[in-house]
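User: Before I run my own analysis I want an independent prediction to cross-check against. Here's the chain; please return only the structure tokens and, at the end, one sentence I can use as a sanity check.
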Amino acid sequence: MATPAIRMFRRLEGLFCVYKPSGVHWKLVRDSIEANLLKGLNATPPLPLPQEVRFLAHPASETEAPKGLTLSAVSVPVLSKHPLVTGPEFQHIRVGVGHRLDAASSGVLVLGVGNGNRVLNDLYRTRVTRDYTLEGEFGTATDDFSHTGKVVERSTYGHITQDKLDRVLAMLQGVNQKALLMYSNVDMQSQEAYEMAAQGLLGPEGKSQPVLTGLRCIHFQPPSFTLEVQCLNETQKYLRKVVHEIGLELRSTAVCKGVRRTREGLFTLQDALTRHHWTASDVMVAIRQYHSKKKKKYSHTQIKDPALPPPEEKTMTPSRQTESSDEAAAVGVK
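Assistant: Structure tokens:
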């Protein structure tokens, strides 16, 4: 018979995401969540203690003379199964980390519990893109491309306009699009390449050099600017270097003041759990929402896939329509 803690752990298996704040190492985030999940699992009420039959002597009265030993069968709890003796039911739980963020970066960090650790590996075998917001500043160059590094050069930036910045971003995106086609290992003259490009499935096979699939400026107020980046196989250090190279292309210098991941696959900032919600109950809700979102996207993809036949149209009576809506609502709750 499964205990309440085991049943709760089964509902915790899956993927979820949290918001990693800047200045905190991802290992500290993982360890904090592991401790909170263990605390929540072990806080569930335990099963009643099993009973065993023992023969106990009747307590003799002080006024009565002992005439012999009298035994009676009594059901007593097995104290060797008590939680104070056996200890917590869960003493270790493994939380897997997906694509990591360095200590200076913030944003969406995907984690997996139980079977979700295997799903993490399957997730990154696919071409999962990630979105970032990069905050840059013109006029300074450092040894590690960040604003906290050692300053190695200062330059002017008054000649930089948003139009010039957009032209440099378009040039960089074009170069990366060619790299995307090169790493995809697909004949560009084939029908397969056309179908994959139409569905947005072109991408590198396995590990490759970082590829920027999208790049645009969303805020420009010199010396500060903000970029929105969509990429594959990237690291945060590479993204900071991209900001540095943009400054060089504009005949100036630039440093990256902040890196924030806003999306990873299906996970967005709206799905990320903040620090005050890293509890077992909130993680359980987040995992349930992820599964429902995944089912909705899969069903939507099935309908939109041109290779699949169109769904048959059926006329239903009002009562049948009500039953179907109730069934759909029940599936969404599960």
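Sanity check: The first helix runs from residue 4 to 12.
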